[in-house]
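Appendix B. One record, verbatim.
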Amino acid sequence: MHESGENYLETILILQNKLGFVRSVDIANELDYTKPSISRAVSILKNADYITVEESGQILLTQKGRDKASEIYDRHRIIAKFLKQTLRVSGETADQDACRIEHIISAETFEKIKEYVEKDNQ
C-alpha cells in the first residue's frame, strides 16, 4: 500500500474515534484535500477491501482496514512519543515528522524504538 492510502486509513480511524462516523467531506476537511481526490481514494480503498461505504455515505473500515489503520496509527504515536521524549522535539514537529517516518521506517527499527519507548515508561 502506498503512503497516501495509509494516510487515508489512519485519518478514517482517527475521525471514527473522534466523531463516531466518517463521510468523504470529513476526510476532505481533515486533510484539506479536494472532494475529487477523496472520491478517488475512497474508490481505491473500497476496491481493495479496506473500507465499505454505506448508502448514507458513511465510510466504515473493514477488519482488514481497521488492522492496517491501527498499525499505522500505532507507529505514528510511538514514533512521535520517541521524538518528543527522547530528542525533545516539539509536539507539532514530532507529529509532522512521525507522519512521514511511519511509512518508511523498517520493521526492525520501529520495534527497537517501540522497545525503547516502552522501557523508558516503566
